[in-house]
Design brief:
mainly beta, Glucose Permease (Domain IIA), Immunoglobulin-like, Chondroitinase Ac, Chain A, domain 3, twelve-stranded antiparallel beta sheet, 9% helix, Dup_hybrid_motif
């Protein structure tokens, strides 16, 4: 009976927390930005690579060019046009102190679209970030502002929708504003993990515990641990009545009825969103594609407005007694899941020791190998890391240095570190000018132009992996989707960009000697025919000038008829 009363009291506390959070924001002030029912593909706070998801992904039934409307009265205060990220985006500032953001759009409403186009031609630049005054583009609630799309860093047609505090620019959880999205499904728990906190969550790493569901509660066998100081993490997803797996909104951890940790995802700043890597088991996320969220605070995790203050989540088991553990997960509608188990400390295992290459949260560190130097800031790591760096002979035909292995690609770093690397042979000044530093982190590569100081090239990165110096003298190129000189009746021209190392960092198109607006879509460059090149306009010469990361410039000329 006492346990039941404690549980009911705790439920009341959690309900009060959620009700209070929702009461802080206007309810039903903002409307659905689409003219179809809201269905979520992703919610606020869902785990993404190196960041939390900062808004709602609204499904568009796998279609593009659906009407996107203003969620409330206000004015267009900003637009962005970019290759990745938001793609085409609209920001609307509202008189109640909030700004809404609409991203991955195909097209702005006609008057705004024409303004942006004129600015692009005036600047001779496709990418734009334009700030507007209140009187330029006022909008009313429900007014068409754009057509939905799949631009920028989007993996499929949808609308990304955010609500921000206009003054602070913090992103707020849109579900706190009273949108009608039916949800009667509680979060689903599929795994429990514990960590030896005498040293670090990275060594020896996660210890998995099988979870089984009994009625509305999840349980495990008693958790026997070999450390007197541990923390827990949970693998779980939330679900709405319709939609995909969503991120968990709120979690609480209790030991013997006492709250020892809690988090809720109400608001996040873009300046802080990378701290997500200190809230999850990053190794599991990158290596095993598993989203496991810590129920404790890592020493270098400084995300504001996330975890309950003064609650670390570190569990002390020195007494070797059996302790009751309860984990409560809740979505924003109050649907609740519970995991109940017991934990006990047995004989301790050996503790991982520190080394002279251990990087500690809050302390900068310089790691040196024979031909490289790596400088980490005091904010580099979320937990203690026995850093391992070594060199291997370069095997790439264009490599002009040894390969520098930087610990493991499965461990995160929070901010940029500076790497200095020496070539393994003498380079001329011309060769130095064509040298780039390449970081291979498994799923992709980052390539930067080396800044030379004497016989060292310097670059900055924010991931770990294998680094080497590459000599790139090859020309970038584009390949057209038409045969030279043909009559083109299609709606657009498309050029596929390629470069042997790095990226195409500069692209310029001129049609008959005048700048022509090409949009960049991933690695392609696309021009949609308009008044600049109408049908029946005859023969045209298209001149393309591109530059890659190493600074190699190539000019190509193509012809076609309209």
């Amino acid at each position: 009976m006492k346990i039941f009363c404690k549980l009911m009291l705790f439920v009341c506390v959690i309900n009060n927390i959620i009700t209070k959070a929702q009461n802080n924001y206007p309810q039903n002030y903002f409307r659905n930005p689409l003219n179809i029912p809201m269905q979520l593909a992703a919610n606020f706070g869902a785990v993404r690579t190196n960041h939390f998801h900062m808004g709602l992904d609204l499904r568009t039934n796998s279609q593009e060019n659906l009407s996107v409307v203003a969620a409330a009265d206000g004015y267009v205060s900003r637009i962005k046009v970019e290759r990745y990220g938001f793609g085409n985006a609209v920001y609307i500032t509202h008189p109640n102190g909030y700004t809404t953001v609409y991203a991955h759009l195909n097209k702005y409403f006609d008057r705004l679209d024409e303004y942006v186009k004129e600015k692009q031609y005036k600047d001779e630049k496709w990418e734009q970030d334009i700030i507007f005054s209140p009187g330029q583009f006022p909008v009313t609630k429900g007014q068409l502002i754009a057509l939905s799309g799949n631009t920028g860093g989007s993996a499929g047609p949808h609308l990304h929708f955010e609500i921000r505090d206009t003054k602070t620019e913090e992103c707020l959880n849109p579900l706190l504003f009273g949108f009608d999205i039916p949800d009667s499904i509680a979060p689903v728990i599929s795994g429990l993990y514990w960590y030896d906190r005498r040293f670090s969550t990275y060594e020896p790493g996660a210890n998995g515990i099988a979870v089984k569901k009994e009625g509305n509660t999840y349980t495990t066998n008693i958790v026997q641990v070999n450390s007197p100081s541990i923390s827990f993490a949970v693998k779980a997803v939330d679900k709405a009545n319709k939609g995909f797996n969503l991120g968990v909104y709120q979690a609480e951890l209790l030991m013997d009825g006492k709250l020892v940790y809690g988090f809720s995802i109400d608001k996040i700043s873009y300046d802080d969103t990378r701290y997500q890597n200190g809230c999850i088991d990053y190794t599991k996320f990158i290596r095993d594609k598993m989203s496991i969220q810590h129920l404790s605070v890592l020493p270098g995790m400084k995300l504001q407005h996330y975890s309950a203050p003064n609650l670390s989540g570190i569990i002390d088991l020195q007494d070797e007694k059996i302790h009751n553990i309860e984990i409560i997960l809740k979505d924003i509608n109050g649907n609740t899941s519970r995991l109940i188990t017991k934990v006990q400390f047995n004989t301790a295992s050996d503790k991982v020791s520190f080394t002279d290459k251990t990087i500690m949260p809050g302390e900068g560190k310089t790691i040196v190998t024979e031909n490289a130097e790596i400088n980490f800031s005091r904010n580099a790591v979320y937990d203690a890391l026995n850093f391992n760096a070594y060199e291997n002979p370069g095997t790439d035909l264009n490599a002009v240095s040894n390969s520098i292995v930087l610990h493991s690609l499965y461990i995160p770093v929070h901010d940029n570190y500076t790497l200095r690397i020496k070539p393994n042979k003498k380079l001329t000044n011309e060769e130095k000018d064509k040298a780039v530093i390449m970081l291979d982190y498994g799923s992709d590569k980052d390539v930067v132009k080396g800044k030379w100081s004497g016989n060292q090239a310097e670059g900055q990165f924010n991931r770990l992996g294998t680094v080497k110096l590459i000599l790139d003298t090859s020309l970038p190129s584009v390949s057209p989707n038409w045969k030279d000189g043909v009559l083109i009746n299609s709606s657009s021209l498309r050029l596929k960009g390629t470069t042997s190392t790095g990226d195409i960092v500069s692209f310029r198109a001129e049609l008959d000697g005048k700048w022509l607006r090409f949009a960049r879509i991933k690695d392609d460059f696309v021009y949609t025919f308009d008044e600049k090149c109408p049908k029946g306009s005859g023969s045209h010469i298209l001149k393309i000038t591109i530059e890659n990361t190493a600074g190699n410039i190539n000019t190509q000329t193509f012809t076609f008829h309209r």
